[in-house]
Amino acid sequence: YSGKNFITHVGNDRGPEIGTIEGMTKGGSPEAVAQIVVPEFVGESGRIEVYKKDPGGKNLAGAYFTATNTADNKQYPIGPTNSSGYAYREGLPFGTYKVVETVFPENYTTSGTSQWTVTLNSSNKGVAVINAVNQLKTGNIEVYKKDVNGVGLSGAVFTVYDSAGKTVTTIGPTNANGYAATDIPYGNFRVVETTFPKNYTAHGQTEWNVTVSGANNGVVTVRATNELKKGHIEIIKTDAEDGKNLSGAEFTVYDNSGKVITVIGPTNSSGYAKSDEITYGSYIVRETKIPEFYQAGAKTEWSVKIDDDAPLI
What is the spatial distance between Cα 96 and Cα 67, in angstroms, rounded to a whole number? Predict the structure, then answer.
């Protein structure tokens, strides 16, 4: 103190004394000092424990944290968490710490709090516990729905199932450009086209196994193709006067550009004939062969449309 060293001796006939070394005299001479021991004062220490889980309580390995002493800014790494989601750091001097999660488990991100302030002292026996929760990152499954000519189709719906077969969500209906998307947590999924656009059916693949992860930046694209359904045109041919069934009649089917699509007939003895499958659409049906001994009736041409509302004309 004030440039001088003070010591205490165990006592003499006057009892224990404290004074400067120079002031400790014996017979007018300073005492001989063999050694000056400077004690090292070590403060009490504790530990910080971390328990890392997902929102469902599943333990998460691989998380790292950094604890910073707010008094001297010294940093102490904690982690990674083990398979039980646990990590700790001991030997931390008593004091206040700012704890930050610096590395999340693979495919996970913060869920709520990712920064904590804790204090190690005698009142908590030098132990601070942090319960940290992470949730799976979220990505996207996007769908592009087109017909066989590459034209976008609206109205398609896809169902997404998890690996256990449970429905997770639906995607769609697709818009006028044939596009739809959904947010979804990282993971493995099965995507199934469950609703086709009106008048369309499957063309090729209708089910996809996909993985949403950091490997694809969280985005999976499904490209699905549909083709128009097919229907039929039936002919019932009768005599205009007595309703008698007439055989031998034939009808030609044209598209709107005048191209021949198919020929129906000849009608059988019941006056009946049916086309092969015809792709949904608008057509012109014209009687092109009249039964023997007959002449054309008042109507020999019909405009028809085959679709989901009328798959059989």
Answer: 10
Interatomic CA distance for residues 138 and 64, integer angstroms: 21
The Cα 284–Cα 261 span in angstroms is 10
Residue-by-residue DSSP string for 242-257: T--B--S-EEEEE-TT
Eight-state DSSP code of residue 104: P
Which stretches does DSSP call E strand in 6-94? Answer: 6-12, 15-20, 25-26, 29-30, 45-53, 64-69, 75-78, 86-93
Give the pTM: 0.70
Q: What is the pLDDT along the chain (313 residues), one digit of tens a residue?
A: 788 777 777 767 777 778 777 666 666 665 566 566 666 655 689 999 999 999 999 999 999 999 999 999 999 999 999 999 999 999 999 999 999 999 999 999 998 899 999 999 989 999 999 999 999 999 999 999 999 999 999 999 999 999 999 999 999 999 999 999 999 999 999 999 999 999 999 999 999 999 999 888 899 999 999 999 999 999 999 999 999 999 999 999 999 999 999 999 999 999 999 999 999 999 999 999 999 999 998 899 999 999 999 999 9
Neighbours of 105 (CB within 10 A): 19
Amino acid at 215: A
Measured distance CA(259)–CA(87) in Å, rounded: 76
DSSP assignment letter at 116: E
Residue (of 53, 112, 102) closest to 76 by Cα position:
102
Contacts of range 247-253, beta carbons closer than 8 Å, 24 or more positions apart: 247/271, 247/291, 248/289, 248/291, 248/292, 249/273, 249/287, 249/289, 249/290, 249/291, 250/287, 250/288, 250/289, 251/285, 251/286, 251/287, 251/288, 252/285, 252/286, 252/288, 253/278, 253/283, 253/284, 253/285
How far are the Cα atoms of 234, 282, 302, 304 from residue 277, in angstroms, in the given order?
11, 14, 18, 15
